[in-house]
Amino acid sequence: MDLARLLWGATPALVKRELRRKFGSEGLENIGLVLRGQFGQLRHPNYFIHVPKCAGTSMLNYIHEHNLPLKIIGHNTRSEDYRFAYEVVGKHNAFCVVRNPFDRLVSSYVYLSKGGNNPDDTSDYDRLLKGYGSFERFVLEGLGHDSSRTELVEQIHLRPMTDWLMDEEGNLCVAQENIMRFERLDEEIDGFLKTFGMQGKISHKNRSRRNNAYRSMYADTQGIVVPDMVEIVADVYKLDIDTFDYSF
Q1: Which domain holds residue 116?
Q2: What pLDDT sits at residue 41?
Q3: Are residues 25 and 137 in the same domain?
Q4: The whole model's pTM is what?
Q5: First vs last Cα of the chain: how many Å apart?
């Protein structure tokens, strides 16, 4: 039930005209968003966009375990009938989780190096990553060269998050208030669950066992961060970093 829509439907025509004249269509939309934010327990998203390596497995397990009324937009672009989120969702009826791109890249590399969770992931690792032998070489020699970078960032788990969350014109297909942070998921998930009248915690499944020390993967044997690695990743994932306000 959408309280904002209900209230609007009950508003007399003369009052509607006056509100449109005074606030304009954009102002009315903002009022609607405020109402939906204040009465979130009466309204919830219809779609979860599963961005690779952004706590998606944990979210999916919770959604299925509790039979939440959500449609899932996955990331199997290998499927011929795959449709990106912007082709399916409305801006305010979907939510997702994003993650620091520097951390996410390490997680993706570790995940693929362990075989992923299907034969296609294993094949991608053998074909695209195995030859580098280390995360450092993967970044410097792989992502650091245009000839190999293009193919690497087409791999499902290495694609920028904005590939999954923006339309072809570069507009986010998810409202900012519906974007949760991996780093604060334990806190932010509470608000999400309340929209379903529920409480609880999300246990992180499929989480790389690195104690969040991703910075160490960008350091040499002396523990000193390699500037070239940081610069390359910052360049490859610049749109992610700028859009979601992350830094190394």
Answers
A1: 44-244
A2: 37
A3: no
A4: 0.78
A5: 41
